[in-house]
Amino acid sequence: MTTALTITALPYSSDPLALFARLRKRPGAVLLDSGRPVASGRYDILSSDPLATLEITPTGHPVFSSAQLQLPAKFSDIDGNTAANSFALQEWLLAQLPSTQVDSELPFLGGLIGYWSYDLGRNNLAVSSQHPSATALPLARLGLYDWCITIDHEQRQAWLVASPLRQQQVTEWLAQPLDEGNAPFSLTSAFQAELSQAHYTERFDAVQRYIRAGDCYQINLAQRFSARYQGDEWQAYLRLRNATPTPFSGFMAWKNQAVLSLSPERFIRCRDGLVETRPIKGTRPRGSSQEEDRTLAEELLSSTKDRAENVMIVDLLRNDLGRVCTPGTIRVPQLCQLESYPNVHHLVSVVQGQLADNHSPLSLLTAASPGGSITGAPKIRAMQIIDELEPCQRSVYCGSLGYLDTRGSMDTSIAIRTMVADAGTLHVWGGGGLVADSKAEEEYIETLDKIRHLIGALE
Description:
Layout: E1 6-10, H1 17-21, E2 30-33, E3 43-47, E4 52-56, E5 62-65, H2 84-95, E6 111-116, H3 118-124, E7 140-145, E8 148-152, E9 157-162, H4 164-175, E10 186-187, E11 192-193, H5 197-213, E12 218-230, H6 233-243, E13 248-254, E14 257-263, E15 266-271, E16 274-277, E17 280-285, H7 290-301, H8 304-322, E18 331-340, E19 344-354, H9 361-368, E20 376-377, H10 379-389, E21 400-405, E22 410-413, E23 418-422, E24 425-434, H11 440-458
Antiparallel strand pairs: 1-9, 2-3, 2-13, 3-8, 4-5, 4-7, 6-7, 6-21, 8-9, 10-12, 11-12, 12-20, 12-24, 13-14, 14-23, 15-16, 15-22, 16-19, 17-19, 18-19, 21-22, 23-24
Helix pairs in contact: 6-11
């Protein structure tokens, strides 16, 4: 069955926020935000009112809601010890959208949008956790969307992709008066670190012992900060975005929970079978003057330690992609290139490959999750050590936000620089890769540098 999708031109705007403000209170409203006009992303994708919503509970069971679709009985008893079946369920859900014959270069013509948590990927690799979940958020929350507004900042164009019925509905929603009735956002307590510097250093020392013993080469060790808040999470997102716009940002809110992501890092992009991942390893803060800023950037570029850290993760990702890509197609067109953001400089590499014919983008996501840049190497042992040393599970942090289109196009982020709102508490994590010549105080300060702008924007 095919559907009569139409692609209708809309007035272009370099800023998607005002447009999304008119949709954000609708069920399942979601924004994938490229950070323009400051950041370098190309597409913004906005939608709401999904045909179905799928949540995977912390025990691995699906919570499925839809007025139009019926969940097959075979998915009603998912094994709580593995996430593999949850990906099969997502494949089924994606197949429920009618096929379309529209020929378009736009990245999304309908499909799944949402998040896949770090803990979903951990479960899929059968790495158990001895700690409680940091939040009550599900392991994944995905909507099946049959329409979207896409803003293309390279072509300076905007488009509404929808069936004629959806087009009429969206036009009516956008024409309604803007509802700004939510209470103003404010923190009601300061952010508190879960670990003191002394406790972080104890865990740093444990990582060094594991490295010397040969258990691992690198561990991405993170710490969590939490604060109580009241009011509108969207207003918090606007503050965060103003402080540090990034090309892989996103916002979604439901009930008393929300995800506010200001990520600079792409996880996996798949388009026409070409797979690309962009790991970040190596960080310096921005300087207070042009001279200091340039010195910090040059220091990062010349750092043997940071380059080695980046190359380790490139090798890990080459292996992950090699599990689902055609042999001989994996390549590294960019290694340790400097990219600068409002609060930090980073070293960024690019790994590419060609997806094998017998694999889907979702199987690619399964094979590579969680991203190697936020686990360490080797991945399984690194994740076991992370669970031993970090006091709680990671939730959405270090998972992925993004979309999967019905045609097989996919783009996802690594959910770093990400705040998770849950029942009046905001959580944010800062972490970094530890290797043999890392220094405890420098690494501790780096975890603070990565989230300082986010916390400062809300305080």
